[in-house]
Amino acid sequence: VDCNSRYCYLDPFYGAQIAVAECVRNITCSGGEPIGLTNCLNFGNPENPEIMWQFEQAVSGMGEACKFFDIPVVSGNVSLYNETVGEAIYPTPTVAVVGLLEDRSHHITQWFKEDGDLIGLIGLTMEELGGSEYMSVLHERVEGQAPHLDLQMARSVNKLCLECIWEDLIVSAHDCSEGGLAIALAESCVSHPQAPKGAVLDISSTIRNDACLFGESQSRILVSFLEKNRLVIEKKAEALEVPFTVIGKVGGDSFIVNVNGKEFISDEISHLKQLWLGALETYVG
Length: 285
Prior knowledge:
Blueprint: H1 5-10, H2 12-30, E1 33-42, H3 49-69, E2 73-79, E3 83-84, E4 87-88, E5 92-100, E6 118-122, H4 133-139, H5 151-166, E7 172-175, H6 180-190, E8 199-203, H7 209-214, E9 221-225, H8 230-240, E10 244-250, E11 254-259, E12 262-268, H9 269-277, H10 279-284
Parallel strand pairs: 1-2, 8-11
Antiparallel strand pairs: 1-5, 3-4, 6-9, 6-10, 7-9, 8-10, 11-12
Helix pairs in contact: 2-3, 2-5, 5-8, 6-9
């Protein structure tokens, strides 16, 4: 189930498409294929022309994405007039996609598995910060352009990931979404239910550092795999014309991220795990 209302506020057409694409990518990361979609379309007062435009654009974007991925919309509902003192909520076309996993032996999870596994990124990181969690939380701004979405690239990225899962070439897969690459990496470290794993990342980038680590470029999947499978994965990526980069290695008790040879993040996994598990309790006091 996905929807980033900030994206939809900035561009309801592409925001809705991104919601569909992210649902599909999440199912892909588990080893399944999408087979159906439902939705819950939440908007302000449709008697306001701007709100009605948001609604029309979101439905159009969602429809085009569903046709592209060949996913039937089997149900849905609409909630309108969501306002407080005349101010509408951000347009929130929430999307839920169900997938089918033909062989459950090919199901994989998001967390890193063993020390020494390599970490790779499928997809391209661009200099995009519009609508991001980084901009909202650290700078209290919701502005700019929503991230670019290339549906053809999204399909190719998903295809590469699924082939690698079905051929037992990777041991984990996690989509990059809210918070960007750094957050996806941290989640892959701390989310293991028994034995959280550290990681050391060495990333080369030509874009600004905050966009590299916290930008929310679409159609990216973080994977980990045995070193012996590296060449096969690289050849598959080349054949599908999908960007693929090895960015680090699993291991240790810390989460360390170096960009262009300079350390930007360093923290103990135990501390990050504590923050992650206690986030809701801390928020509500």
